[in-house]
Amino acid sequence: MDIGPFLLAFCLFPLHVSADSTCKLKAKFNLSGYKNVEKKKVVIGGMFPVHMRVSSSGGNTSRLPVSSGCEGFNLRTFRWTRTMLFAIDEINKREDLLPDTDLGYVIYDSCFTISKAVEGTLTYLTGQDEAVPNYRCGNGPPLAALVGAGGSDLSIATARILGLYHFPQVSYCSTCSALKSKFQFPTFLRTIPNDQHQSTAMAKLVIHFGWTWVGTISADDDYGKYGIKDFKEQVEEAGVCISFSETLPKVNSPENIQRIIQTLVKSTAKIIVVFSSDVDLSPLVTELLRHNITNRTWIASEAWVTSALMLKPGASLLLGGTLGFAVKRASIPGLQRYLLDLDPYGDTLSEEFWETMFNCTLNYGKALRNTRPRTSGSNSTDRSLPDGLCTGLETVAQLKNTYSDVSQLRITYSVYKAVYAVAHALHNLEHCEQGRGPFNGRDCTNISSFEPWQLMYYLKNVRYTVPHTGEEIYFDDGDVEGFYDIINWQFNSDGEISYVKVGHFNATAAPEEQMTIMNGSIVWNSDALEPPRSVCSDNCQPGTRKGIRQGEPVCCFDCIPCADGEISNTTNARECILCGEDDWSNEAHDVCVPKIIEFLAFGEPLGITLIVISAFGALITIAVGVVFIVNVGTPLVEANDAVLSLSLLFSLVVTFLCSIVFLGEPQNWSCMTSQVALALGFALCLSCIMRNPGKAVVLMHRAQALKAARARSKAAAKAAKVAAQDAANVGSPDVIVTNTNNNNDLGVSVNPEVDILTCAHQRALTAVATLIQAVACTVWLILLPPHAIKNTSAQNIKIILECDEGSIIFICCVFAYDILLALIAFIFAFMARKLEDHFSEGKCMTFGMLVFFIVWISFVPAYLSTRGKFMVAVQIFAILASSFGLLTCIFLPKCYILLIKPERNKEDMMRPRTKPRDGTSTGTSASLATAATEVGTAVASSAIDD
């Protein structure tokens, strides 16, 4: 209710009245309170919400408006009212504070309603029981200041009015942060901290316990709205989410209360922050108890944290473990005695208090009307006091209630400080030294006739020490320091509550030192030792990251495991961290660990096995070479050229031993050595294999030529024989038929001494073929040599140390050349397999080359399907298998003859076998020479016979 514009209109257009004018009263206010202005020098105003609400009116417009009455007597606020009276009485008795001035008072009940607060303010300003804006019609002592008016909404309404006249107002419980604005409320001061500090304290409390999912409830007034607004801004900035935000109705509304109940039931939030007065919250607590809603932890604002209005039957199950913020607590000596020393007939408020406390009435007529006379017997007419009538002799001390409980004097202490602030300001005004004052060139003012704005100057600059507590009070732009005690509601087995201090908050300290909490002293609602958890989603542990749920608050998320190679080492990580190139995530994905370095080591079982096999192959090959050297000069060794055979054996030793170089941690030198040795070893080996079947091919062609010559000679002999028979039949003389030309031709064509592919040619061919490979490898090593690398992409968790070929083109060319030699050797060996010697070397070489190709063809898919050290193992197995295949197929038959069957190592065993039925014959060069001689003799004999 903003009445500022209306009052401003009154100020701009004042009512000009005179003694002869007729004033028409619009309405008469119905205010209750305390008033003592007679023979007083200065009057202090006060306003307290002694009642909780105004009485409902019928809204009848057919009669004169009547100010509403109040209902719902509040014991707590009545104690505040009596405290102001006690403070004024204490000040009047002091000799050091306002010794020459008696303070009077005018105290009204605001009924916790804005309209009543405005009524009281206007009445206080005008000095009459009705309001005459812009005029003071009373003739009493000057008004000093207003202490009040209770809640923030009430103080906002009164401060707007008082601010128009620069009339000082000192509040004891109006904490709304909006009242800080001196532009809107220039004369407002308070002895209770600004809610901005409390909102910060609540936010820090929520963050301290790690609660990220909270609900909020606020009163439908400026106190609740501004307090929750500041709280939300601070916690949301820290990543806390608001599950729900509800508003308590100012007027009791069962529908709205039920809606809030349903929201609480549905929400998973276990922490509920309430910014409200005890009056506004009380209906909700009653309904919560009826629905038996427990397992919630409540965060209380200072307006209800120590209020007994919440302590209903069963409240321990609902509100046990509540944490809240309370203003400073103090002990005020003599106050309890003053509170208990109450005259029930002194004023209307005291009378109502008495009747409320003892559930009786002080009005005899009312009691008589409500009860029937008691009789002692059926025929007795003796009358006694009516039931329900108070005697006035009841003892307040025998009742344990909020009014007489002085163990938690917090707001009460704030009232005490507010009265003393006004008193000290008046004292400073009264004792101003003329010529050193603050007004009009250092003037002072008279305490009997000062203006409100003059007292405002002294109030803003007052600095005093509170009696009995020693606390120093001063106003910083109208506010006091933000200091709160953190209170924990602890119930015993009998349901009695204790407000236990478990920490404090000091807004003036450094940010990291503002809040101190003794976690071990807190008793939680669930009787657990650990704080309750209130989260929309459980914390994402290290190894996972937060995944946003679309359309939900940021506190509601899914925990997504980090991908391989990524980690998160903090709780609730928003992103996973990619591990370095040489690192990988562990199984939990919370630490980057070095990747496993893999290579085929010498010492592991597989490496040892390959070394043993390689060494065994090399030793066997050397042993075969020794056998050949021992048997040099024998027909079998001579027929196969001992030099080239030993060269072949040497190349096999190289291939066996080069496989060992593939083992161990790759180095640049080992990469170059292994690849080049393998390429040259196979080039030499295949070149040596290629020369023997090559020579056999030449001999095969000779055998075919010999066969053709035999056929021609037979045909010529047959023709001569036929001709001789024909001549004999006709009686012709003897004719000697000769065929010199044919004989010469035959001798030339099949001359066994003419050997086109000599041993020198074979050795030269082998050397040239190997030299070509050596040149290619040299160029490779110079331009783009193989080198060791770390392969981090083949396997995620491993770093594979391997050899990089340097150039795909070079390695393809080098080993393509070896494949070309192998193909040529295989073709020659295959063509030479039909030589009809007793020892057919061509067949052995054919089988050896078949084994070679089978091994390397099988190697390709096996090599491509493996990774890491097993690729090296597959390569070594291929080298060893092909080397063993060549060694076995080529040299095992020879060693068998040399060692087991030496009797077959003779020249005649190298000659041709029995001629086949078709007359064809193939064989070695020696056998071919013998065959040619026989052909020539046969031709000559045929000619002579004929």
TrEMBL record:
Keywords: Cell membrane, G-protein coupled receptor, Glycoprotein, Membrane, Receptor, Signal, Transducer, Transmembrane, Transmembrane helix
UniProt record similarity statement: Belongs to the G-protein coupled receptor 3 family.
Compositionally biased intervals (Basic and acidic residues): 908-918
Protein's name according to its UniProt entry: Vomeronasal type-2 receptor 1
Membrane topology: Multi-pass membrane protein
GO molecular function terms attached to this record: G protein-coupled receptor activity; olfactory receptor activity
PANTHER family linked to this entry: CALCIUM-SENSING RECEPTOR-RELATED, VOMERONASAL 2, RECEPTOR 2-RELATED
Residues passing through the membrane, by range: 606-630, 642-663, 764-783, 808-832, 844-864, 876-900
Domain G-protein coupled receptors family 3 profile: 606-914
Domain of life: Eukaryota
InterPro entries the record matches: ANF_lig-bd_rcpt (IPR001828), GPCR_3 (IPR000337), GPCR_3_9-Cys_dom (IPR011500), GPCR_3_9-Cys_sf (IPR038550), GPCR_3_C (IPR017978), GPCR_3_Ca_sens_rcpt-rel (IPR000068), Peripla_BP_I (IPR028082)
